[in-house]
Each structure stands twice: as structure tokens, then as C-alpha cells.
TrEMBL record:
PANTHER family linked to this entry: ACETYLTRANSFERASE, ACETYLTRANSFERASE-RELATED
Keyword Transferase attached: yes
Family to which this protein belongs: Belongs to the acetyltransferase family. GNAT subfamily.
N-acetyltransferase domain location: 5-181
Recorded catalytic activity of this chain's protein: glycyl-tRNA(Gly) + acetyl-CoA = N-acetylglycyl-tRNA(Gly) + CoA + H(+)
PROSITE patterns reported in the protein's UniProt record: GNAT
Keyword terms, alphabetized: Acyltransferase, Repressor, Toxin-antitoxin system, Transferase
Pfam families according to UniProt: Acetyltransf_7 (PF13508)
Protein name: N-acetyltransferase domain-containing protein
């Protein structure tokens, strides 16, 4: 079921390079990032790119780029997450989903939710390996269908985004978060 491969493992041989070259999600900027920038950022320790292969491992179904992050939450959000409000900080350790793309031929089939669930499971299975993180955060394109997709998958808009919307501030993206602790209990 869609094996996960780390980018540098796949890009090491000609077959892997061919899989990468053949991936297209239909968005030129995302395709360009995967083909020309992802490995460099991966090797520089900036981003970790996960590739989701087809069951026969002959093509890339999706990919996700992850980076360490922190997320500033309001007092209300801290309370909603049942985090001790006496903490000296409002910055919560997070993993940021910096890029997420599904191959064009797999879009609109419900696989995006399945792959996103696999990303969450991957993070939960590695949560105690090296460092602590509580949230999966992302900057979703400010498009109602994109926002609805992430809401259906358990993401919530950060409080700052709600204030921005209320004041009609122009937003090209919307910061959203998912509480990974909900999956690990």
C-alpha cells in the first residue's frame, strides 16, 4: 500500500532518477521543486522529502516535503490542545508540511487523504526518535477547495488566520495545524 521512500534513497540509481523525472502533479512550480530543488534541500538538512510509490513501485504516486518548525498559538489554542497554560512559551514544536503533491493521474480519487494520513502515521511512528513535536502545520493555498480538503483531514486554521479573515487581509496562504497527539493516544 504505497510504500514510502526517502528522496535520497530513490535518487541514488538510474531507475529512481527515472521515476523522479516522470512525476508530474500538473503544477509547474511543484514539479520544478521536486525535479530541481528537493534533493539539494534534502541533502542540506533543510527538508526531508518522502515519496509514496505505487504498489508495484513503478511510479511515484505522491510526495511530501517536511521540515522542523514551531507554531505560535493563542492562549485559546493552547487550552484547546490541553497544554499547560503555564508554559513559558506559546511556540509549539512542529513539523511543517512544506510541499505536498499528488501525481496528476491520481488526483480527485481520494488518494490525497490516504497519503496525508500516511504522512501523519509516519510522523507518529517517528515522534520519539530524535526530538519532540506536537503539531503538523502547513500553509495551504487560499483556495476554498484546498482549505476544505485540509479541514476534511482534521486540520484547523490558526487563530491568527481567523483574525486575518475577519479583517479582510489579503492572504495567499492560510496557516493550518493538525494535532498529532490525537493520533498517538
Amino acid at each position: 500500500m504505497y510504500p514510502i521512500v526517502v528522496l535520497d534513497d530513490l535518487s541514488a540509481d538510474d531507475a529512481g532518477k527515472a521515476l523522479l523525472a516522470n512525476f508530474s502533479c500538473g503544477d509547474a512550480a511543484l514539479d520544478n521543486f521536486l525535479h530541481n530543488e528537493a534533493l539539494h534541500l534534502h541533502n542540506a538538512g533543510i527538508t526531508r522529502s518522502l515519496l509514496f510509490l505505487s504498489p508495484n513501485q513503478e511510479e511515484i504516486v505522491a510526495w511530501a516535503a517536511l521540515s522542523a518548525s514551531e507554531t505560535h498559538l493563542s492562549d485559546f489554542e493552547i487550552g484547546e490542545l490541553s497544554i499547560n497554560s503555564m508554559l513559558p512559551t506559546r511556540f509549539i514544536p512542529s513539523v511543517r508540511l512544506t510541499k505536498f503533491a499528488l501525481a496528476a493521474k491520481y488526483q480527485k480519487q481520494g488518494l490525497g487523504s490516504l497519503v496525508l494520513s500516511r504522512v501523519k502515521d509516519y510522523l507518529i511512528s517517528n515522534i520519539n526518535s530524535l526530538c519532540a513535536y506536537r503539531l503538523l502545520v502547513l500553509d495551504a493555498r487560499n483556495d476554498e477547495s484546498v482549505l476544505a480538503f485540509y479541514r476534511r483531514n482534521g486540520f484547523e486554521e490558526c487563530a491568527q488566520e481567523t483574525r486575518n479573515k475577519k479583517h479582510d487581509r489579503d492572504r495567499s496562504s492560510v496557516e493550518m495545524y493538525f494535532d498529532l497527539l490525537n493520533l498517538s493516544q
